[in-house]
Design a protein that fits this description.
It is a single chain. By secondary structure, this protein is mainly α. It has one domain. It contains two helices and no strands. The longest helix has 30 residues. It is elongated and about 45 Å long.
């Protein structure tokens, strides 16, 4: 679970950087990168949720 959290944090930082670049500077390429990262994060967040629920039940 710790590995998933670390990966989510890494991807979250990359998302934040690129999303801000698009929002503040109008950088279209950064927006594309942010959208791609968000797609990578989705399965990790679902996996975290599943593991978190399993741990809370034990």
């Amino acid at each position: 679970m710790k590995e998933i959290i670390e990966k989510i944090n890494e991807l979250g930082e990359a998302f934040r950087k690129d999303a801000l670049a698009q929002a503040e500077n109008g950088n279209k390429a950064a927006g594309l990168r942010a959208r791609r990262v968000s797609l990578e994060m989705e399965p990790l967040l679902k996996q975290f949720r599943k593991l978190s629920l399993e741990k809370s039940r034990t």
